[in-house]
Design brief:
243 residues, alpha/beta, five-stranded parallel sheet, elongated
């Protein structure tokens, strides 16, 4: 996918992931965060940087199960579709183990695929000598591996980056950008939603007042935003239990 035009506040994370994969100190980076936090954009940015350094990069979007995921991997590697009667997972493993050049596979939004079978496949990916993997997910994968897996829980954007993003996306919000950024908690999904409303003609002053009075009411109403709220409790419960 194309890179987003306005990418702010994540350069350190992007460079960290790229450095780990290029050096070989990690064969896999797992980016964990709620929907709307910018996981996919981080992965895409790393992919483009590696591709500019002549690394082949495969981007696999959300799939329903491991068979579909492996079918997409095979399609990218062989440029042909495989029928379901083939042993898709076995063929995918074989093709990946035969790679001659370091290749990056981005598995985006794997939460619906995760489970014991996926964990087994991921362990194989980590062991494949020429494979580097970036996984984006709402939930950590199920197995624990030492050494060559790098996990990152994506934090909200800092206040300065959030305000700058709002100003770039909706110049008419400039005088209220810092306050709006603080109210949005540095969450890119909310920042983009708010900026879209500003562009559509919402008065920044009035909107800021409403957002301060009842943020959950203002920031709910679309499928993606509702998904964010549904997963918020589970995400932070897992984070705090680990800490």
């Amino acid at each position: 996918p194309c890179q987003t035009k306005n990418f702010l506040g994540r350069d350190a994370v992007v460079n960290e992931i790229k450095g780990k994969l290029v050096s070989g100190s990690s064969h896999m980076a797992i980016v964990i965060a709620l929907p709307g936090m910018g996981k996919t954009e981080v992965a895409i940015r790393v992919g483009h940087l590696l591709q500019s350094d002549s690394w082949p990069v495969l981007f696999i979007e959300k799939q329903k199960n491991l068979l579909e995921l492996c079918e997409e991997i095979l399609y990218h590697l062989t440029n042909r579709r495989w029928i379901t009667s083939d042993n898709i997972v076995l063929h995918a493993r074989r093709k990946l183990s035969e790679l001659k050049d370091n290749t990056v596979i981005i598995l985006d939004d794997t939460v619906s695929v995760q489970g014991p079978v996926f964990d087994d496949f991921v362990q194989f990916l980590v062991s494949a000598p020429k494979v580097r993997v970036i996984i984006t997910t709402q939930e950590d994968i199920g197995f624990v591996s030492v050494g060559n897996i790098h996990k990152i829980r994506l934090d909200p954007l800092d206040l300065a980056s959030s305000a700058e993003l709002l100003t770039l996306l909706a110049p008419n919000s400039k005088n209220y950008a810092k306050e709006l950024a603080e109210l949005c908690g540095g969450i890119p999904l909310f920042l983009n939603y708010v900026s879209a409303l500003m562009i559509d003609g919402f008065c920044p002053k009035v909107f800021t007042q409403e957002l301060r009075k009842n943020p959950s009411k203002v920031l709910k109403g679309t499928e993606l935003l509702d998904t964010f709220y549904q997963n918020m409790g589970r995400f932070f419960l897992g984070k705090f239990s680990e800490e």
